[in-house]
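note to self — DONT lose this again. spent like an hour looking for the file last time. sequence + predicted structure for the chain T wanted, 112 res
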Amino acid sequence: MAAIPTYRWRLAPDGLATRRQLRALGLRPGGQDVAAQLERPRRRREPLVAYLYRIERAKPVRPMTPAKRAALAKANAARRICPQCRRDAGYVIPPLLGVCTPCAFPEEQRAA
């Protein structure tokens, strides 16, 4: 396996971009391999690494289809339903609690 080129923070050549930068341009990597990596040094820890892709090989972002939009809306709605009381909480239920706030902290426990 060949090592990929590594650049220091803010010193990458033009024509390379991270996934976020590609997305801001309306592009996606499109199956291409990582062209290089960017390292951001940190104190007392290993550096942060970001992978870079070639902009000229990037493909346009696929448009959202009505079916995908409906599936995403259904998945987001499921995250709002409390599994205990089966009501729409009006917000995404935190995974740490697993239930809506009224079910997690009933009135009896709050008053004590």
